[in-house]
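wait is this the right file?? whatever heres the structure
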């Protein structure tokens, strides 16, 4: 057996371990009894160490070097490149740090559930400080090996090739027009009244509606399922995708579109090339591209009139046929813009402000210019500046609202707005290629959409860099102008 085939065997074994870890994590978030957390955290930490040690074995390095001398196909060469990139990313961290980060993240994340409910910043802070301390250690180690800044070394984990210098340019440009756009849209919508749906909307009916919409969007229930968690997410592995949502019996609006969002993530996972599922090259290209798929589904398509027309009957069957659930009122509801506290519930106009705030804070944390104890003050300053909202003392709807920092996922937040920009650019290309696409969407026919996504995004996995993927799909690398044009066209014209 040649060296490359041995690498395939090793990565299949690693993938199987990661599969178990992903399902155990999903269970921890969605199903596990609260008293089991310590034992589960220890088990997951031990599994993380096992995967880390397997992934960083010197044998892999030897096999990579030997494989580089073989006559490989172009796809195999690309696969080998991603194997080496993945190996280099993992080998810089000692197992002790991997274990410490896993334990700290589990402890912080589990305690956060109750601490957030109780607005307990004082109790949350020590756990967060430990997670940030370990993340800074990781960043320092990675930076010394990559030559990147501390923050960029973490950003590189989620957005290969992207640097904070580029993000600063992108976000600085967005800040020149976003605040005024928000004001203009809010002013315009003052004269566009709508009827707020009044509950109760029983959870079981919302769940049934969500299942119908997921099926409508092509979710494969043979290899996936949906459950409830405190923070919606898409997890598992491509062969066994687990998505979660949350329900509010007084408001079905956010839950339904949250389900559409996670279904976008899931469809990407379910359509990655299974023949490469255990290899780095078979993974999603970046978190920004992953997020582009959920936002393609939720924002570009999901909140558009055509899609709402396609699920109108489902909503009426669930909740009634009154004026509240007319297509006109639903369109106004799903495109209503209101600066508010919560990122995951934000409309697409204000969402970028939530992301920029978090990016600016986490960059300063990792680069050593901000202490965790000072986050609430900076958070409030930026919320007032970007959205005109006061969060003083309101920790649960401020700095404590997200799960990312509690789990050490620092460098992740920029992916959300990058994803929104990628999605706008992708959908613009689809509309140019298929001028009748909205007519087909309104009739529940997504064949053009899914065919384009499969051909240009899904099946390509990580065979191209992000820039190459976007250029092949849309004719150019990321261009934020499409995001701005989309917001102006939907909300001001």
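ok assuming it is, sequence goes like this
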């Amino acid at each position: 057996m040649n060296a490359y085939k041995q690498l395939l065997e090793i990565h299949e074994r690693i993938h199987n371990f990661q599969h178990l870890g992903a399902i155990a994590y999903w269970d921890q978030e969605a199903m596990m009894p609260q008293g089991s957390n310590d034992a589960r955290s220890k088990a997951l930490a031990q599994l993380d160490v096992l995967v880390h040690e397997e992934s960083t074995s010197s044998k892999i390095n030897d096999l990579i070097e030997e494989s580089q001398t073989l006559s490989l196909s172009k796809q195999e060469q690309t696969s080998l490149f991603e194997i080496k990139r993945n190996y280099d990313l993992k080998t810089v961290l000692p197992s002790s740090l991997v274990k410490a980060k896993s334990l700290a993240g589990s402890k912080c994340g589990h305690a956060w559930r109750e601490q957030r409910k109780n607005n307990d910043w004082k109790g949350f802070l020590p756990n967060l400080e430990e997670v940030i301390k370990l993340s800074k250690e990781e960043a320092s180690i990675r930076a010394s090996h990559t030559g990147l800044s501390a923050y960029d070394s973490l950003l590189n984990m989620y957005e290969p090739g992207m640097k904070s210098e580029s993000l600063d340019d992108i976000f600085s440009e967005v800040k020149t027009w976003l605040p005024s756009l928000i004001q203009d849209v809010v002013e315009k919508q003052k004269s566009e009244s709508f009827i707020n749906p009044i509950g109760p909307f029983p959870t079981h009916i919302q769940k049934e509606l969500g299942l119908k919409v997921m099926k409508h969007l092509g979710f494969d229930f043979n290899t996936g399922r949906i459950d409830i968690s405190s923070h919606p997410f898409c997890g598992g592995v491509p062969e066994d995708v687990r998505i979660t949502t949350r329900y509010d019996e007084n408001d079905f609006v956010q839950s339904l579109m949250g389900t559409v969002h996670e279904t976008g993530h899931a469809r990407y996972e379910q359509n990655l090339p299974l023949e490469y599922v255990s290899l780095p090259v078979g993974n999603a290209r970046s978190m920004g591209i992953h997020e582009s798929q959920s936002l393609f589904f939720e924002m570009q398509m999901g909140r558009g009139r055509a899609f709402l027309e396609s699920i109108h009957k489902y909503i009426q069957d669930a909740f009634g046929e009154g004026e509240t659930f007319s297509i006109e009122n639903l369109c106004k509801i799903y495109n209503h813009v209101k600066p508010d506290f919560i990122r995951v519930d934000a409309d697409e106009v204000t969402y970028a402000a939530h992301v920029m705030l978090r990016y600016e804070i986490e960059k300063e944390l990792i680069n050593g210019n901000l202490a965790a104890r000072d986050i609430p003050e900076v958070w409030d300053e930026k919320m007032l500046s970007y959205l005109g909202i006061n969060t003083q003392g309101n920790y649960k709807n401020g700095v404590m609202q997200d799960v990312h920092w509690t789990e050490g996922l620092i460098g992740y937040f920029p992916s959300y707005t990058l994803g929104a920009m990628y999605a706008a650019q992708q959908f613009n290309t689809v509309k140019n290629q298929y001028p009748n696409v909205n007519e087909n969407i309104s009739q529940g026919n997504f064949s053009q959409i899914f065919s384009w996504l499969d051909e240009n995004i899904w099946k390509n996995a990580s065979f191209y860099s992000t820039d190459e993927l976007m250029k092949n799909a849309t004719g150019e690398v990321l261009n934020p102008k499409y995001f701005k044009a989309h917001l102006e066209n939907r909300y001001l014209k």
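DSSP finds 21 helices and three strands in the chain. so i think its the right one actually
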